[in-house]
Amino acid sequence: MAVFRSLRWFQAFTAVVVALQLIVAQAMAANPSLHDHCHGHSHEPDHTCLVTLIQCGGYDCSLPDIVPVTISTATPDVPVSLPLSGEIVPSHLLTSVIADAPPRGP
């Protein structure tokens, strides 16, 4: 039982630390002088931290550009067999649960 108490204490402590860090980051995002006091190089254009991500609206402004990919429309070299019949029935519709069930009693 002592293990669960120490684990709950650790979880509560971790939750409080994370909440305090988010509050401090929000305060630094609202007050640029506080951000500059903590990060001396915060005025540089290539500076990226949690505060700058909060200020620009999230990760969208820090993502790299997407590289376009060329898609080939050539036919595959592997032969593809087509179904012989015009109607394709899924395998789960070929049998029914009731047909496999045992007979009912009186």
The major beta sheet can be summarized as: none
Helix content: 40-55%
**Order of H and E elements:** HHHH
Number of helices: 4
| Termini gap | 55 Å
What is the CA-based Rg, rounded? 31 Å
Strand content: under 5%
Record field, number of beta strands: 0
What is the SS-derived class?
Answer: mainly alpha
Mean pLDDT across all residues, rounded?
77
Shape verdict: flat
Poorly predicted segments: none
Keywords: Signal
Topology:
Elements (H helix, E strand, L loop, with lengths): L1 H29 L1 H7 L11 H7 L40 H4 L6
Structure description:
With 106 residues, the chain is mainly alpha-helical. Helix content is 44%, strand content 0%. It is built from 4 helices and no strands. The chain has helices at 2-30, 32-38, 50-56, 97-100. Helix 1 packs across helix 2 and helix 1 packs across helix 3 (50-56). The chain is flat and about 80 Å long. The two termini are 55 Å apart. The mean pLDDT is 77.
Salient structural properties:
44% helix; mainly alpha; single chain
Concise overview:
With 106 residues, the protein is an all-alpha fold. It has four helices and no strands.
